[in-house]
Sequence to fold (285 residues):
Amino acid sequence: MTDSKEIKVREKQELTSPAEQTTPGVVFTPQVDIFETDKEITLLADIPGVKSEKLNIDLRDNILTITGDVEPGEASGEEDVLIEYETGRFYRQFTLSEVIDQNKIDAKLGDGVLRLTLPKVEKAAPRRIAIKAA
Amino acid sequence: MIYRRFFGFPSWESRNPFAELERMKRQMDRLMEGFTGPYQRPDAGVFPLINLTESAESFFIRAELPGVVAADLDIQATSNTVGISGERKIPAENKDARWHRREREAGKFSRIIAMPSEINPDQVDASLNNGILTVVVHKAEAAKPRQISVR
Fold:
């Protein structure tokens, strides 16, 4: 992917109909890439400003929830001159159709990008049942 | 003149008639803010979007650049502009991957930000943390506010 096209401005997408939030603040939908191979599903999400300790990944009942809180980077003595983007929580949910091996989920966070690897459960090997003569 | 008395601008920086209009617009925006909460200014339409803040000593430029590494960033400063350019690369994945979603974009970007006052281009400090670029630009000596004591 080393094409030389220019990146277009895309405003951060604000979440419009979330389940009601208990904490005040804006909630954004991160942009994601999702691809699948025979063994695993990989999810890449852009969550700039989220520290690893503020990132929460939850998988239950086939619903994957990613929540990341962003602390404002500004110090208290700073005055706004031009504000083009806002910061807030990142939140996105996915329904997974495959059965995921929960123990082998791997999450890496670097340069504001989350890489989540969800290995599929290996198909149960057919077991042969020997029948003993009575 | 009445405008000047209302809003108390001690001097015109330029005699450009549009500058006056521009100022008027800004004043209106500020008025609107009082009624409707923070007024959403239209952005410049150039990637990356920035937030510019200032303290008495310096300006702070912040931009969200997830997935951009420091080596692919180029920051240049003159006495009144700061240029941010670079490339966002998304490494190729396994060939037999089947894609479900592709929302993240790769490509080049370049933006020049005009600073509100003169800066010191020799004292520019940039850092990249968790996908957020912070550029700290020190104001030129002449542009720093000075405490004037009243006798």
